[in-house]
Amino acid sequence: MPYTNAKKGRQVSRRAPKNASASRYTVGLPTSLADQVGRYARTVDTSMSKAIAALVRLGLEAQESRKAEFFKKLKANLANDDPKQQDQLVDEFRTLILGR
Fold first, then answer.
1. Residue numbers of the domain that contains 81
2. Which of 23, 26, 29, 53 pairs as cysteine with 34 (C-beta 3.0–4.6 A)?
3. 85 within 8 A of 77, measured Cβ to Cβ
4. In 10 A of CB 3, how many CB atoms?
5. pLDDT tens-digit map of 12-32
6. The predicted structure's pLDDT at residue 1
7. 58 in a domain, yes or no?
């Protein structure tokens, strides 16, 4: 039976999730980040939970894309003996791994 979500003012169903094998987690977000996620959720008209899941998926895909791009550059420049080019690749690798 549906009930009204007091915060959002819309009806929410109490049925089981479509994907019963999905894991559920509780996360704590800083207020500023939670506000950003809330704005994103309203923009795409979805719940905070689904917005967080979508943003995590997009972030993981972006990380994989950056990694693939780095290895593509590395492979193209393996034979390059230019120390500046090697230092740049090391810096890119450091950024990829450490996120800095």
1. 30-98
2. 29
3. yes
4. 9
5. 555 555 656 778 888 899 999
6. 46
7. yes
